[in-house]
Automatic annotation (TrEMBL):
Segments for region (Disordered): 137-208
Name by which UniProt lists this protein: PspA/IM30 family protein
A family per Pfam: PspA_IM30
Family (UniProt): Belongs to the PspA/Vipp/IM30 family.
InterPro entries named in the record: PspA_VIPP1 (IPR007157)
Compositionally biased tracts (Basic and acidic residues): 137-148, 164-177, 187-208
Length: 225
């Protein structure tokens, strides 16, 4: 009766992992499975509702027939009390017809009720299994996302310190060392040049003092004369 159980059994069965292995995107496949299960449950709910409606219809018909049989029984008694045997006979014949209908309808109602109860139970099982699969889906989705993140991180980390990156760092280190060496050489050249300038300036100052001293001696000598 429940053909729509087939897809759900496939999802909740051992084939789930195999299907996930083949899927390019397990998260999308899990969402698809859940949508199929939801569609199955909606179909089951519609079937259960239809069966319950059938059960209630048969129950009403059975109760109506039973009431009519009881009514005809009471009417037959009244007819006899009124000494109308013919009317009493016809009332009893009609009662027999209603009672026969009531008996048949009662059997149909009992079967319909049993079927409805069975369908309700199966629907409850489907919903319970769906809830379990929903929790499992959430867990699998979280694991899939975690695995994707770890893969991205591992790939990123594998690039750090790789040959290309390491060689790039080594080249930059060599350039920095070269810049530092050039800066030190420039400082040495500037220091050397400054020392030479200082010595030449000092020589000029010395010559200037000597000249002033000679001029002063010459002036004093003239004054003594």
């Amino acid at each position: 009766m429940f053909q729509f159980f087939k897809r759900m059994k496939t999802v909740v069965g051992s084939e789930l992992n195999a299907m996930l292995d083949k899927a390019e995107d397990p998260v999308k496949m899990l969402d698809q499975f859940m949508r199929e299960m939801e569609a199955d449950i909606r179909d089951a709910e519609a079937a259960v509702a239809k069966q319950i409606a059938n059960e209630k219809m048969l129950q009403k018909k059975y109760e109506d027939a039973e009431k009519m049989a009881t009514k005809r029984q009471e009417q037959a008694v009244k007819a006899l009390e009124a000494e109308n045997e013919d009317l009493a006979r016809r009332a009893l014949e009609d009662k027999k017809t209603y009672q026969s209908q009531a008996d048949t309808l009662h059997e149909s109602y009992i079967r319909a009720k049993e079927d409805a109860d069975t369908l309700r139970t199966k629907l409850d099982e489907m919903k319970s299994e769906y809830n379990e699969m929903k929790l499992k889906k959430d867990s699998l989705k979280a694991r899939a996302e975690s695995a994707k993140t770890r893969t991205k991180m591992n790939r990123a980390m594998s690039g750090i310190g790789g040959d290309q990156s390491r060689k790039g760092f080594e080249r930059m280190e060599e350039k920095v060392l070269q810049f530092e060496a050039e800066a030190e050489t420039s400082d040495d050249m500037r220091s050397s040049s400054r020392s030479l300038d200082d010595e030449l300036d000092a020589l000029d100052k010395k010559n200037s003092v000597d000249d002033e001293l000679a001029a002063l001696k010459k002036q004093i000598g003239k004054e003594k004369e």
